[in-house]
Amino acid sequence: MKNVCSHCGAVIENGSKICTNCGRMVSGADIQGKGQERQFSSFGGAQGNVPGAGNRARTTYAAQRSAKQMKAPTQNYGQNAKRRQIDPGYDPVKQAAKQKVPFVTNETSGKEKNRSTVRPLLAALVKVALAAAVLYIAFAFVMVMLVRTAGYDFKLAEGVALPCDSYGEAFDNYFEDGKWRYSLKGNKVTFTGTDKDGKEYDITFGKKDGKTVVKRMLIDKKLISEDKIMDIYVMGMFMSEKT
Fold first, then answer.
1. Are 16 and 22 contacting, i.e. CB atoms less than 8 angstroms apart?
2. Are residues 138 and 233 in the same domain?
3. Do 240 and 164 share a structural domain?
4. Of 129, 161, 229, 230, which shows the fewest CB atoms inside 10 Å?
């Protein structure tokens, strides 16, 4: 009958004092007959009520473990070392793009929160400013056109007619160049131009008895008396013909 080691279960030659498999010293008490060979688990440990069942055979992997690992194995114990390393080239954004899914992160900063409040406010202010500018330009254009197309009754003798019927037509014929403007301050329309003799005019329009009239006129920065503006200067402009 062959003898077996009680530690690892290997066959021991008769008379041998050392197990050639596990290297342990064996005695008569450590030797079991083959018919009484213990059952061993996958780790070489004895099972059942066989003497020395608490012992475990020393495997190649277990032999390389330190005492600290044996007492408190880590979460990476048993994993391949290359598998535990983080790929330095891994990019979650690129990975999400490859998988055609949005990359979402819950991390936010205070700057993002401030931008989310300031940007809509700035956009609203810009829209209001643009709308106000458009309305002002449109209103100014309408006011200038109302004056340009307006006429004046000079109380002429019956059968006498003037060549021009409106301020716009009269000024176009009388002045070499000129510019119409609308001023929100005072809600007034003005005209500045130069006549054929090189004199500079600064004219301000207003209302009198419900009619559009020239309220103020400067010629070469000299103020003209109001009672002479319409019946002398402005009527002379209405009498001008286009050359």
1. no
2. yes
3. yes
4. 161
Dihedral pair phi/psi, residue 135, rounded to 5°: -65, -40
Distance, in Å, from the CA atom of 241 to the CA atom of 172, rounded to the nearest integer, reads 9
CA dihedral 182, 184, 187, 193 (to 10 degrees): -30
- Per-residue pLDDT tens digits of the chain, which is 243 residues long: 567 888 788 887 777 778 888 878 877 655 554 444 444 444 444 444 444 444 444 444 444 455 445 555 555 555 555 555 566 666 777 776 777 655 555 555 555 556 678 888 899 999 999 999 999 999 999 999 999 999 999 988 887 889 999 999 999 999 999 999 999 888 999 999 999 999 999 999 999 989 999 999 999 999 999 999 999 999 999 999 876
Q: Which domain holds residue 122?
A: 108-243
Do 59 and 113 share a domain, yes or no?
A: no
Contact indicator for 230, 215 with CB cutoff of 8 Å? no
Beta-bridged to residue 223, according to DSSP, are 218
Instruction: Report the number of distinct structural domains present in the chain.
Output: 2
- Return the structure tokens found at 1: 């009958």
Please check whether residue 80 lies inside any domain of the structure. Answer: no
Question: What pTM was estimated for this model as a whole?
Answer: 0.51
- Between the alpha carbon of residue 162 and those of residues 153, 227, 235, the distances in Å are 10, 20, 9
- The length of the chain in residues reads 243
